[in-house]
Structure formats: C-alpha cells, structure tokens
Amino acid sequence: MLKTQANDVVDTLENGSHVLEKEHGSDVAANTKSQFIRYQVIAQHVKR
C-alpha cells in the first residue's frame, strides 16, 4: 500500500512540475522538482 502511494506521489509531482514550469516559470517548477526527487528516494526505499 505504501509503495503504491509513494509511486502515485512521484507521478503527481512529476506531472505537476511540467505544468508549473509552463505556467509559472522555472523557479516554482524547481521547488516542485526538489519535492519530486525527495519522493523518488522514498519510493526507492519502499520498493526494497
């Protein structure tokens, strides 16, 4: 269950960062991408 939730968060953040970059520029997108990377790391640990 936690693995699925982590993967969903990763997908949502990845998609959201692309939208934010188009609509609001790279500063906002960079913050979202840092969150995306953080959740990717969490998802990797959950998969093990």
Describe this structure in words.
The protein has 48 residues and is mainly alpha-helical. It is built from 2 helices and no strands. The chain has helices spanning 2-24, 26-47. It is elongated and about 35 Å long. It comes from Brassica napus (Rape). This is BnaC05g09990D protein.
Write the SSE topology:
Layout (H helix, E strand, L loop, with lengths): L1 H23 L1 H22 L1
Helix pairs in contact: 1-2
Structural class: mainly alpha
Rg measurement, Å: 11 Å
Spans of at least 5 consecutive residues with low confidence: none
Number of domains: 1
Ends distance: 13 Å
Write down the secondary-structure element order. Answer: HH
Strand fraction: under 5%
Helical run tally: 2
* Average pLDDT for all residues: 75
Anisotropy-based shape: elongated
Which short descriptors sum up this protein?
mainly alpha; BnaC05g09990D protein
Provide a quick synopsis of the model.
This protein is an all-alpha fold and 48 residues long.
